[in-house]
């Protein structure tokens, strides 16, 4: 990680925090800070990606603005996170897309829908978009199966590869890569990821809106994350139905893929809409403004993917199915394309930061029982 | 929203923990309450904003306090730090009531945490607020708001009209405009006068200009002075204050806890004239940190310099401002702006007097000097491992000891020896009754909570009758 104005400011603030340490009970950032005395840009990037943005430390801070020290850890670390997404993007030249992320994500979504619509009309009979299609294989009459899976598969495969490369660059850039693999820290990090235990200031909640403690952000993120995972499971089970069991979609409402997708879609919509609401009503001071565009765009894209999926389920036996399918798939395509160049990468870097922290914590305990 | 035309049952002057404890208790007892805070909303809470914990008696371990801490041990600790300058019945009453203070604060929304790190290990005797004092202050204002307590920010009470021991009204400035506030009872919880340099200058002269005020700049002592001028009895030595060794580069006000330096026991400390002036290793730091502010205040220019080397650097918490650093003592003296040859001689004399011993950072060890004046009794190691480090020091004042005399019902005592009928006090403005000198970590918050609750309860009862 290179030195920037943000790393300089983050270092200055961390030096205040490391002398104060009142916030040690809030989340992993402060114990991780206390293990250090000097902060390299890599250390600061690690701390930035450990930060979940619960804002507990800001509202508790005796040095928060308007104090002259102006300590604002959530906003500063969020700005640094954004810089680290750009720094570690793969291929490196793509790092620049994080500068105007909201605009680019919106354009990608529009492009995705347009491409799929044009593709349908170019490859097949355009009237299929407006006429009701029923019975097994109805969807694939609009878009051929091979086309759907090859394009989506390629986009998704690339996204996973690019995010993997980004993760490797991040891991090397933020600290020592060394040490033997051991399962215990992986387990620690896994629990932290799946329960979001760092979003909650020791269990009583975050400062989601102001200095009141609530658990809205945590539960909404859970709804979004697990909703997304259910949708993913719906797609996977759908392809097992298709390829292994020989059952063609559309499946009945109470079939496994449709049930997974239905509840997943609902959770995804609740989570993303709720998080958008929180972003709008929250105290704007402990927030990184540069990051907001990309965050709103990704949340909106996820909401649209979820809601168009639900709409598609509702109208799949009518003449509107063709257009809705094209829009839904266009949005999914856009999401896959955008994955490695959106806020979505926080999942990779946060997980790695939690893993590094779990390793450090265990090593410190072993050295100092 | 506060209505200044209303006759309030209880008017609380101040906005820290002692004021909030009083206001919340009075409101819960059914009184209508107005709380008047000098600071704007973002800087509310007085010195409570900078605190971290509260000292509480407990017969058995609790979720936030380990082992037990009983009345006799608590009293012994208080007696030792005050050297007997305390009021035993009031002190014992406070100690007993401290058992219920964490529970009361928890009912006000305050969250406690177990102590995790830091140099002062206090988890047995002190309950720590998660996030520190500002989180406590936020929670208490939130509770006050939910209970319907009227709060005025940016409003300074300048005068409480007291006639024959009876308070009738308060004159305030509210956002710059003068106003009158009427109340059936008044509770003064407006702190000491440590941020009032003019007043400090009366006792300390020009030296007062070099004192750093660690806490709120709103502790002007306006009401303290006002009440003392109206015949309310005084306690505490007006020249005395609690002060620590602060970083000389700290802001002159509101620098808070992070400006204090813990390096003294692992360093040697010289003054402007490059002379050592006190045993740096007299006792463990938690028992000595509170005397160093005064020691530095008594040096020329109120300046001192702690000199350490790379061996000692990791024995104390990192400082916010990095120390000056040099490869030779001569060069370090140049960076600190003190006489280089003299510093070399002081360090050489010290190094020559260091006796062999086994260094143990957290308890008094046998590393000491022989034949040095003043001696360094513990943690004395040769300063000879470059790079060398120099921390410039100034006195950082936490609070003043001067206060108004109160009785065991938190009523202020009039000159004729009788308690006021309807004027009460809690917090730093009356802490001198119990803490005549010295300090016990977390005891200020204990006094504030205990007397805040007492004052709130008594005021509400008086207003109802």
Describe what this molecule looks like in 3D.
The complex is a heterodimer of chains A (369) and B (465). Chain A is built from 14 helices and no strands. Chain A is an all-alpha fold and 369 residues long. Chain A folds into 2 domains: 85 residues, no CATH class; 262 residues, Fumarate Reductase Cytochrome B subunit, CATH 1.20.950. The longest helix of chain A is centred in the middle third of the chain and has 29 residues. Chain A starts with a helix and ends with a helix. Chain B folds into 2 domains: 280 residues, 3-Layer(bba) Sandwich (FAD/NAD(P)-binding domain), CATH 3.50.50.60; 154 residues, Flavocytochrome C3, Chain A, domain 1 (Alpha-Beta Complex), CATH 3.90.700. Helices cover 28% and strands 22% of the residues of chain B. Chain B has 11 helices and 19 strands. In chain B, strands 1, 2, 6, 7, 8, 9, 18 and 19 form an 8-stranded mixed sheet that branches. In chain B, strands 10, 12, 13, 14, 15 and 16 form a 6-stranded mixed sheet that branches. A 3-stranded antiparallel sheet of chain B has the order 3-5-4. In chain B, strand 8 and strand 9 form a beta hairpin. The longest helix of chain B has 22 residues. The radius of gyration of chain B is 23 Å and the shape is elongated. At the A-B interface, helix 1 and helix 4 of A face helix 5 of B.
